[in-house]
Amino acid sequence: MSVLSVGASERPAREPSFAEFVVIIAFMMALGSMSIDNLLPAFGHIQRDFGLTSANEVQLILSVYMAGFAIMQLFYGPASDIIGRRPTLMIGLVVFSIGSVIALFAPNFELMLVGRLVQGMGAAATRILSVAIVRDRYEGREMARVMSFTMMIFIIVPVFAPAIGSLFLLFGSWHAIFVSMLVMAVGIAIWFGRRMPETLHPEYRMPFSVSRIGNGMKRCLHERATVGYSTAIGLMFGGLMAYIASSQQIFETEVYGLGTMFPLVFGMIAAVMGIASFVNIRLVRRLGMRRISHAGVCGHVLMSLVMVGMAYWFDGKPPLILFALNLAACQFLFSLTMPNFNTMAMEPLGEIAGTASSMIGFYTTILGTIVGTIIGQAFNGTVLPLATGFLLTGVLSLIVVIWTERGRLFAPHHPDPAAVIDVGH
Question: Which of 40, 189, 227, 342 is spaced 20 to 30 Å from 181 by Cα?
Fold first, then answer.
């Protein structure tokens, strides 16, 4: 039976438990992260195999992937509102698998970039559908709690992904990494197809209509919270993309020369993001999304300012321990903001969750990719470009949040926990 037929024709015998639901959604989101992070140790190998002259050029593997990821998000959301979440996800996984095969057998770097573009176009479905499915079933602080659970599991992937990539390189080549991506995509398709029901509310299913899709997109643009928090997400995501793109050069080769220790340091910093997601889970019901996320973005600006000062003080190469701790603090605060910003951006748009998720996903990803590429390409053998990028994106995000909230930070809009909406029961 094909992947498409699993998704389209089989209904699960029993709906997943809360824990299984969270894990399925986390693995959907993790496919995109895995497709980035486990390639990081292979950058040097890919550069040598394709005869590239600059290490910065290899960063295009990430930029092209994210470009495809951004563009196709405009398709998957409206499609899922029309034909449903399940078949739309299966289409995306098939596209991702095709891209994996192209990259796996690419005879030159240009064709590899084509494969990565197609991979990103397919992986976009996992990003859009994971958020839309969670929004189908939950809202308010409960949605933020579910997204934090999901992010906590999702962040485990970058902890181990570079080490897994290094293991493949130890016993094979970078080609084996693309095989693992293909296997993961097929596994998610089978698991989701057998266990996850269609979550789209029957009354929210939209007949195909260009005008209706256009109206849904206009609705997104008219919601102040959606525009503001999406912009803040995109800016801060740009800082994260710059870090991921230049992390191999910073830790493994040019700045600290850690070599094979790179996956360990990268994983430890990623683990801090998982801890932050757990903290958010524990606090979001009690304190609310705005208090936590506003404190997170303010703290991120402060820690970024410390990073810039440290970079200047040590001529762009601060001691590894100090830099890693500072970077971990920034990532911790970043993880306190993202699930809550995403929830607040989606909150007014429950009846068009698919289209809204597409618009938000496209905008935040394309903004983050552009910002991250600019910062990443500025890498000059020091940590100063990254530190400066963190500070600028953090300050701009804070300004946008202040505009969104009309100058009132830390003010909860929903003092009582929102009721859970579970259409499966």
Answer: 342
Q: 18-196+220-404 domain in CATH 1.10.760.10?
A: no
Measured at the CA of 29, the angle between CA 353 and CA 365, to 5 degrees, comes to 70
SS (H, E, C) 15-38: CCCHHHHHHHHHHHHHHHHHHHHC
- Residues 232-267 as b/e (b if ≥16 CB within 10 A, e otherwise) read bbbbbbbbbbbbbbbbbbbbbbbbbebeeebbebbb
What six digits make up the tokens of 312? 């200047």
**Spans of all domains in the chain:** 18-196+220-404
Tokens of 308: 């810039």
Rounded to an integer, what distance in angstroms lies between the CA atom of residue 48 and that of residue 64? Answer: 19
What CA–CA distance (Å, rounded) separates 335 from 330? 9
**What are 24-79's pLDDT values in tens digits?**
888 888 888 888 888 888 888 898 888 888 878 888 898 899 889 888 888 887 88
User: pLDDT, tens digit, for every residue of 257-313?
Assistant: 998 888 888 888 888 887 887 787 778 778 888 899 999 999 999 999 999 999 999
CB contact at 8 A, 391 and 308: yes
